[in-house]
Write a structure and sequence with these properties.
This protein is of the alpha/beta class. Helix content is about 35%, strand content about 20%.
C-alpha cells in the first residue's frame, strides 16, 4: 500500500470555475493540519510548456526555482502553500507525447506499437506517482486542466481511472468541480448541467467522491439532496463554493463546508487536529481592514488581460496587507503613454511599476513612464524589461547617449546599454532556452536593495535573454545609477537604483514569483511603503 495519498480534481460544465483555487485551498487546509502536501497541474494543450505562448493565450508564464516555465496556477499553489513547486508540478500533453516519442526513438519499447493506451497513459501515471515518491509527500493533489469531455483531456482522465484502480479506494479521492447556474428569469438554481457533467465522468469510468458546486447563490438542503441522489454521492459530500470577495477567503469557506474533513475521512487520514489558520486569518484581517490607501499605476503591454500579470497583481495584495494598506492598481497600456500625456496620466499616482514583457511594441511608452517617475521623484519599480527601460531612459536623458537602446529593439543601436547575453547568441530555439529559474545575487551594503532584504546574499527567479551591458556600468554609476545587486559568478547586473531618489529600483529578476501570503516579497513591501510616504508628503506639502 502506498504511503502517499492522491487527490484528483476535475472540472465540468465550463472552464474558469476555479479548480486551481479549490485545489490550493484544500491543500492549505491539509497542510494546516500538519501534513506535507503538493499540487501538480496537467494541462491538455500540445505545447511542451507555456513558455512560447502569448500571455493573451494563457495568462502569465510562471517560472519555478528549477527553471520550469509553467502554468499560472502554480503561482496560486506557491502563494497558498508558501512552498516552492518544480518541473514535476506542471505537465502538458505536449511534454507527455514528447517524452514517449523520445523513448520510442531510443528503442525503449522494444519494437512494440506505441499507443495512447498503455504508453501515453502510463507516462501520465509515472508523472503522478513520481511526484509522490521523490517529494516524500503525505498527499499529492493533481488538477486536470480543461473540462471533462474535452478531446484533449481524455488520456488524462483515463490515466486517473487507472490510477484509482491501481492505488485502491483508501488512497484516492476524486473531486469534481461543476457549475450550478442560476436562471434569473425562472428564479431557480439548475442542477442538470452538473448531472450531465458527472454522467460524462461516469462514462469515462470515474465516480466522483466529492462534488464542489460553484454558484453565485446558496445551495439549499433540498438542492444538495437532489444533486446527491442523481450523482451518486453522499449529501455531506456536496460542497457549496460560493463566489468570494477574494480568493484568499476560499480556504476558510472550504473549511466551513468541511471539505478537508470529507477528504481526509475518505483517505483514512486522522483529522482530529484542527487546522492552524491563525496567520492566514491575520492576513485576511489586515487585507480587509486597511488603515491607508495608495494608488499604483502598472505600465505594461498586456494589460487587457490581467492574468498576464497575475503574480504582480497578487504581490500587491500581499504587500498591501503587510503595510495595512489598500493598493488601488490602475493597469495602463504602454502604447497609450507619450511624453505629452505623462503629466495627465501620472501626476496623481503614488507609485509607478513598469512591467515585464518582450518585443518592441509599447517600449517607448514604458521609457516615458520611467522618465516621468525619475524626474518627478515618484516611487518607481521596474521588473525585467521594466528595469531595462529604466537604464535606457537614464542613458538617453542623463548620460546623453542619443539613441541608446536594447539590441532586442534595435540590433544596430550605437549605444547598446542592454545587450543579448553572450550564451544566448548561438541559440535559435525559443522554448525553454532563456536564462530561467533561480540565480544568486550579491547585494551591496548601504543600498536600498540591501536595506530592503536585510542581508547580502539572495536568490531570485529569472526569465530573460538580454542583460545590462557592463561596458557602460562605470558611466552609469558616476552619474548616479548604481548596480546594487550583481550575480557573484557572472557579474550580471541584477538590481539598479538611483542614489538621489526616494525609491527608484529596477530588478532584472522577477520578485513577484516569490511573493506569498505568509511571506510578501520585500521589494513589493518597500515599494508600497515608499508610495505611502510619497502620498503623505504630497498631502503635507
Amino acid at each position: 500500500m502506498p504511503s502517499t495519498k492522491y487527490i484528483f480534481v476535475t472540472g465540468g460544465v465550463t472552464s474558469s470555475l476555479g479548480k486551481g483555487i479549490i485545489a490550493a485551498s484544500l491543500a492549505k487546509l491539509i497542510q494546516a493540519r500538519g501534513h506535507s502536501v503538493t499540487i501538480q497541474k496537467f494541462d491538455p494543450y500540445i505545447n511542451v510548456d507555456p513558455g512560447t505562448l502569448n500571455p493573451y493565450e494563457h495568462g502569465e508564464c510562471y517560472v519555478t526555482d528549477d527553471g520550469a516555465e509553467t502554468d499560472l496556477d502554480l503561482g496560486h499553489y506557491e502563494r497558498f502553500l508558501n512552498s516552492p513547486t518544480s518541473q514535476g508540478n506542471n505537465v502538458t500533453t505536449g511534454r507527455i507525447y514528447y517524452d514517449v516519442i523520445t523513448k520510442e526513438r531510443r528503442g525503449e519499447f522494444l519494437g512494440k506499437t506505441v499507443q495512447v493506451v498503455p504508453h501515453i497513459t502510463d507516462e501520465i501515471k509515472d508523472c503522478i506517482y513520481k511526484l509522490g515518491k521523490t517529494g516524500n509527500y503525505d498527499v499529492v493533489i493533481t488538477e486536470i486542466g480543461g473540462c471533462v469531455g474535452d478531446i484533449e483531456s481524455l488520456p488524462f482522465i483515463e490515466a486517473v481511472r487507472q490510477a484509482r484502480f491501481e492505488l485502491g479506494p483508501q488512497n484516492v479521492v476524486s473531486i469534481h468541480l461543476t457549475l450550478i447556474p442560476y436562471l434569473n428569469a425562472a428564479g431557480e438554481l439548475k442542477t442538470k448541467p452538473t448531472q450531465h457533467s458527472v454522467k460524462q465522468l461516469l462514462e469515462a469510468g470515474i465516480q466522483p467522491d466529492i462534488l464542489v458546486c460553484r454558484s453565485e447563490h446558496h445551495l439549499p438542503s433540498d438542492l444538495r439532496r437532489k444533486i446527491a441522489l442523481f450523482c451518486n454521492v453522499p449529501v455531506n459530500c456536496v460542497i457549496e463554493a460560493r463566489d468570494a470577495s477574494t480568493i484568499y477567503d476560499v480556504p476558510l469557506l472550504m473549511r466551513k463546508e468541511k471539505l478537508d474533513e470529507r477528504v481526509l475521512t475518505k483517505l483514512k487520514i486522522s483529522h482530529k487536529k484542527e487546522p492552524n489558520l491563525d496567520q492566514w486569518k491575520d492576513f485576511l484581517r489586515r487585507l480587509k481592514t486597511p488603515t491607508s490607501e495608495v494608488s499604483i499605476t502598472v505600465v505594461g503591454k498586456y494589460v487587457e488581460l490581467q492574468d498576464a500579470y497575475k503574480s504582480i497583481s497578487e504581490s500587491f495584495i500581499h504587500a498591501g496587507a503587510e503595510n495595512e494598506c489598500k493598493t488601488r492598481v490602475t493597469w495602463l497600456s504602454s502604447e497609450d503613454v507619450t511624453a505629452e500625456n505623462c503629466e495627465k496620466l501620472f501626476s496623481e499616482v503614488d507609485g509607478i511599476l513598469v512591467a515585464p514583457g518582450f518585443g518592441e511594441r509599447g517600449i517607448e511608452g514604458k521609457i516615458e513612464a520611467v522618465r516621468y517617475a525619475r524626474e518627478n521623484k515618484i516611487p518607481f519599480f521596474g521588473i525585467c524589461l521594466g528595469m531595462q527601460c529604466a537604464t535606457i531612459e537614464f542613458a538617453r536623458n542623463v548620460l546623453k547617449l542619443k539613441g541608446a537602446n536594447s539590441t532586442e529593439m534595435n540590433p544596430k543601436s550605437k549605444y547598446p546599454v542592454i545587450d543579448m547575453m553572450e550564451d544566448q547568441k548561438s541559440i535559435t530555439d525559443k522554448g525553454g532556452t532563456m536564462r530561467l529559474g533561480a540565480y544568486d545575487c550579491h547585494l551591496t551594503k548601504g543600498t536600498k536593495a540591501f536595506s530592503t532584504y536585510g542581508h547580502v546574499n539572495i536568490s531570485e527567479r529569472h526569465r530573460h535573454r538580454y542583460e545590462f551591458n557592463n561596458k557602460y556600468l562605470k558611466d552609469f554609476e558616476e552619474a548616479g545609477m548604481i548596480a546594487s545587486g550583481v550575480n557573484p559568478e557572472t557579474g550580471l547586473v541584477e538590481i539598479v537604483e538611483l542614489k538621489d531618489h526616494p525609491w527608484f529600483v529596477g530588478s532584472q529578476f522577477h520578485p513577484e514569483l516569490k511573493s506569498t501570503v505568509l511571506n510578501p516579497h520585500p521589494l513589493f513591501v518597500r515599494f508600497i511603503k515608499a508610495a505611502l510616504a510619497s502620498k503623505k508628503e504630497k498631502i503635507n506639502s
